[in-house]
Every structure is written in structure tokens, then in C-alpha cells.
Q: What sequence folds into this?
């Protein structure tokens, strides 16, 4: 998944049942590097280098905590359990000039795979993006990344087509699948999720 690297509002945190999405801090550099220095992660995050050193984490933190870019754009660390919990990955969304909407991205450190954290984070990103008034949210993943594809489908995204994106790790273009979720579909999904289930169902 291609994670946007945009400026953020450091005061904004998102909370889910198990996660806190918040701005990275300088003290997080070691934890970020420990999880990101993994080719299994880097191969699926277009802008992520490999190897990934502490210096790369410091550079990323400084860039995304610089003067905020025009909304909507955010970058977060994913923390398990709350603001002081362990770092388990990263997520964010940035402007998609082609559509006028935004594109989300996320990554999870390998020790935390298989627990549904990516889906939880993606849902929080989608809700946050639409709360800022965007018309639609996009996402993409490498065609070989079945796990990320499942996350997007769970969040209501519809396949839009295939394309190519640059992989910093591979130093060239890689094939991707593109997905899209519009506001009307999101509103319907939110309504369905809060609708009471009949007793006989």
C-alpha cells in the first residue's frame, strides 16, 4: 500500500476500539525504524526505502510534522491501546489531484499482522477524510498484496482499475490495483452498521 507522506495537524488524534492514530514524535524514531526496516513491508509501500534506518525515520517525522499542508492531509503513527501504547505501523491520507478527493495509505509492522489492525486504521482514515468534506476516497495496493486488497473490500472500496506506481525499494514501476469509495456509499455503509438487527434475523 502506498502511504501518503503529508503534513499533519499535531493536535488531531483518531481513536478506534484498539488503536490511537496520532502524530509521530522524535522519540518514536527507533520504533518506526525497527518495524519499517523489513523488505516485506517496504515492498508494499511505494515511498518507503529499504533498508530503513533510524535516520530515515527522523527525516520522515520532521517532514510530516512541519508546517501543516492545506487540508485534507494527515499522517499518523498507529499505537496499540492508546497514546502511550507501542507503535505498530503508520497510516495517512493525502490529496488526490486527479479526482479532487483523497487517497489513503497504511502499513503494519510484521509482528502485528493478522489482527485486523489495518482494517481498523483504514476505517478511521475513511471516516476522518469524509468528515472533512471530501467527495471520495481512493486507495491502491500492489496486485500481489492480497491482504491489503481484503482490507479495502472490507471497508467498502470498489475496484476501479489497474495502473502503475513507483516503488522506491525496487527503483521502478510496479503494477497496482486502484480502488474508490464515494461519499454516498460510505454513508450507506455507516447507516447499515448502526441499524438495529431484527430479533428474528
A:
Amino acid at each position: 500500500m502506498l502511504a501518503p507522506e503529508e503534513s499533519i495537524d499535531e493536535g488531531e488524534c483518531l481513536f478506534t476500539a484498539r488503536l490511537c492514530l496520532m502524530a509521530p514524535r522524535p522519540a518514536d524514531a527507533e520504533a518506526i525504524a525497527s518495524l519499517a526496516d523489513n523488505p516485506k513491508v517496504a515492498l508494499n509501500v511505494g515511498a518507503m526505502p529499504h533498508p530503513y534506518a533510524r535516520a530515515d525515520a527522523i527525516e520522515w517525522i520532521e517532514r510530516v510534522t512541519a508546517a501543516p499542508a492545506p487540508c485534507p492531509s494527515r499522517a499518523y503513527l498507529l499505537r496499540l491501546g492508546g497514546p502511550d501504547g507501542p507503535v505498530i505501523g503508520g497510516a495517512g491520507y493525502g490529496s488526490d489531484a486527479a479526482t479532487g478527493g483523497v487517497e489513503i495509505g497504511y502499513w503494519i509492522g510484521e509482528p502485528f499482522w493478522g489482527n485486523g489492525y489495518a482494517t481498523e486504521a483504514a476505517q478511521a482514515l475513511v471516516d476522518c477524510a469524509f468528515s472533512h468534506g471530501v467527495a471520495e476516497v481512493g486507495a491502491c495496493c500492489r496486485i500481489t498484496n492480497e491482504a491489503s486488497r481484503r482490507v479495502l473490500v472490507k471497508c467498502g472500496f470498489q475496484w476501479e482499475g489497474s495502473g502503475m506506481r513507483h516503488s522506491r525499494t525496487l527503483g521502478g514501476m510496479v503494477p497496482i490495483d486502484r480502488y474508490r469509495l464515494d461519499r454516498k456509499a460510505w454513508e450507506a455503509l455507516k447507516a447499515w452498521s448502526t441499524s438495529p438487527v431484527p430479533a428474528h434475523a
Summary: Residues 1-10, 197-201 have pLDDT under 50 and may be disordered. The longest strand covers residues 172-182.
